[in-house]
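Private note to self, pasted from the team thread so I don't lose it. Backbone tokens:
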């Protein structure tokens, strides 16, 4: 049956926000929470993670319900939107860091207090967040993202 413009917008928003952005930010916040050594920073990250997980769960519940009603054409349409959303999101991890930033002039102890993930671990965390937290769950709903499209975003 034909979907209204409002239904398309709701589906698109659930995909872009809950299934992708919230999934990514939640996973990245977990990594920061695990790396922090300061109790106040840990408490802030715990709250962020709890909040993000609820938003992500909303998207998961929606797609568990909606996936049974989706046509192959709708899944293909959503796959394109998912890839475009990931491409836009990739700017956050693909933008070179400013060598003059405070991050480069501080101690490892200070970095861990505020929950920054060390550079050599950061991209591993990004890859896991994208592959395990976004691509795999979407595939469970029939929203497929091709490895050859996703992998270049993770280099």
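Design output:
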């Amino acid at each position: 049956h034909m979907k209204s413009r409002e239904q398309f917008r709701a589906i698109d928003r659930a995909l872009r926000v809950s299934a992708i952005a919230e999934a990514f930010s939640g996973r990245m916040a977990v990594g920061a929470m695990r790396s922090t050594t300061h109790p106040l920073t840990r408490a802030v990250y715990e709250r962020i993670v709890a909040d993000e997980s609820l938003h992500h769960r909303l998207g998961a519940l929606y797609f568990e319900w909606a996936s049974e009603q989706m046509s192959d054409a709708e899944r293909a349409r959503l796959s394109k939107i998912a890839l475009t959303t990931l491409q836009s999101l990739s700017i956050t991890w693909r933008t070179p860091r400013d060598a003059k930033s405070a991050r480069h002039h501080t101690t490892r102890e200070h970095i861990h207090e505020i929950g920054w993930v060390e550079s050599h671990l950061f991209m591993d965390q990004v890859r896991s967040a994208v592959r395990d937290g976004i691509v795999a769950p979407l595939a469970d709903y029939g929203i497929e993202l091709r490895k050859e499209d996703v992998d270049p975003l993770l280099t």
